[in-house]
Amino acid sequence: MAVSRFWREIPQRYNLEGNQCTICGRKYFPPKHICDSCRRESIGKMKKVKLSGKGRIYSYTVIHTGSSMFNLQTPYIMAIVELNEGPRITGQIVDCETNDVKIGMPVESVFRKIGEDGKNGTIYYGYKFRLVK
Amino acid sequence: MRDVAVIGVGITKFGELWDKSLRDLTVEAGLKAIQDAGISSDDIDALYGGNMSSGLFVNQEHIAAMIAEATGLTEKHIPATRVEDACASGGVALRHGYMSVASGIHDIVVVGGVEKMTDVSPSLATDALATAGDQEWEAFFGMTFPGLYAMIARRHMHEYGTTKEQLAKVAVKNHHNGSMNPNAHFQNEISIEEALSATMIAEPLGLFDCSPISDGAATLILCPLERAKEFTDKPVKIVASAQASDTIALHSRNDICRMDATIAAANLAYKQANLRPKDIDLAEVHDCFTITEIVAIEDLGFVKKGDGGKAAEEGLTQIDGKMPVNPSGGLKAKGHPVGATGVAQAVEVVTQLRGEAGKRQVKDAEIGMTHNVGGSGATCAVHIFEVV
After folding, report:
1. Residue B142 and residue A76: Cβ atoms within 8 Å?
2. Is the ipTM value over 0.90, yes or no?
3. Which of B31, B89, B125, B151 has the fewest other C-beta atoms within 10 Å?
């Protein structure tokens, strides 16, 4: 991934910055230019909003065959987390065993290294999630 | 709008075809279809080629013109267009071919689909397939393509009590059907026990819940129905051609246990054809994973939402069942060269409607459906075919 593309996504990946339609109040992550419900009415009326990172597991899987960047981490847990503010988000579940996870469990986001662009490339950081005891 | 018929079909064997290039595969399927239709290359007005990712798989883009050249159409200078919508590329290419004939712009059109996937390592193939999902918000964080469908399966189990045994039944059925298809990637039967004890890929999906990485190509020849009798005694009419879209990321859907793109495309197709789900005699549905077939038969209206697993368990979808699904062996056993799949599904339905499917023939088949999904459901193409 080119460095500029990495930089552009820092607000979302580091700070869970989404946005909100100021007409209907619906929140989005990642941010959208246009609200799905209000469409053209929402142009210019979307405002930034920071999400709490707290939510619940909507569905999950344990990956045994990873993509090239993640193959050394297998088995690892991936989930769709439903954030308390509404949007759903895909991320890794960490700091627990693979059989600890169940649908509905509360989680919170943590800031972690995600990967790197080869040996000499950029290190990517972003969100993962851990279970809230 | 003119009625459109399929007058010729061609397909290669699907599998790990190390001795065949992308070019070889398209020529083989293309020439078979041209022969089957009894046309000459002089008759061809246009070509649409479905292909997901020749760029990532064989480092070659711009392959529609290449296919036209390889099949001897160079001097005709026909318009040749590549169509890409991930795993639905073939079905969407068919829709473009259909629209060009229906509109009256072209008369005789070649619709091809091809993917050459085994020239790269399985890990690079996994990366290429993940591009059908959201690169920045799914794959970047470690999500794989089987992982997305595993999350659909987990949620379906949670909401409807679907079991791993029911998923395994889909694989066992499709392997059984594939054992009767000489072009299938896998022509061996498997047992429930084998399916259940397979290596895990993305829990709860094991190896036998996943379609394979395959090479292959398929081709259809379309023409206006009014001209079909010039070429064949057994034309098959396309009575519906529908397509729909949805969010690219799975997590953005309201309910991951259904595919709204499938529901939208199917509703449109039933309306175009003036048919209902119970009128369909057989369907080739997109079983890239066993759970996908279960969700598909629900979304297409063959069973109630949540009953897909039970239907698989009770044999409803077997060749001799009430609603035969994937008599070809499906993506699971026939193989899944992604860009070829949508076209290959149509080849199977046409073969069935002509009564030429041999041991896997569905009895008295007159109306057949194809259902082709891109990504985790961001694109869906549905076609309905009828004996003339």
Report:
1. yes
2. yes
3. B31
Q: Mark whether B57 and B132 lie in a shared domain.
A: no
What is the per-residue pLDDT for A1?
A: 57
Chain B residues inside the 8 Å CB shell of A127: 141
Same domain, B221 and B361: no
Q: Which two tokens stand for residue B259?
A: 């595919």
Q: Domain range spanning residue B315?
A: 128-211+238-334+341-387
Residue of B nearest to A87 (CA): B252
- In sequence order, what are the residues at sequence separation of 6 or more whose Cβ sits closer than 8 angstroms to the Cβ of residue A20? A26, A27, A28, A46, A47, A48, A49
| Of A108-117, B119-128, B279-288, B317-326, minimum mean pLDDT range | B119-128
Total domain count for chain B? 2
- Tell whether omega for the bond before A30 is within 30 degrees of 0, i.e. cis: yes
Q: Of B309, B250, B260, which is closest to residue A59 (Cα–Cα)? A: B250
* B175 and B314 part of one domain: yes
* B108 to chain A, closest Cα gap in Å: 40
- pLDDT tens track for B82-97: 999 999 999 999 999 9
Same domain (yes/no): B183, B283: yes
Q: Single out the residue of B116, B115, B129, B114 nearest to residue B18, CA to CA.
A: B116
- Interface residues of B toward A, Cβ cutoff 8 Å, are 122-124, 126-127, 130, 134, 136-144, 146-147, 150-152, 154-155, 158, 199-205, 249-252, 256
CB atoms within 10 A of CB B53: 21
- Please tell me which of the candidates A66, A88, A128 has its beta carbon nearest to residue B251: A88
Q: What is the CATH number of the domain that holds B167?
A: 3.40.47.10
What is the C-alpha separation between B93 and B114, in angstroms, rounded?
11
My answer on whether B200 and B287 are in the same domain is yes
Q: Does B233 lie in the same domain as B183?
A: no
Closest partner CB to A64 (pick from B140, B152, B202): B202
Answer whether B343's CB lies under 8 Å from B50's CB.
yes
Out of A61, A68, A103, the one facing B203 most closely (by C-beta) is A61
Judge if B178 and B53 occupy the same domain. Answer: no
Q: Given an 8 Å threshold on Cβ–Cβ distance, is A69 in contact with B142?
A: yes
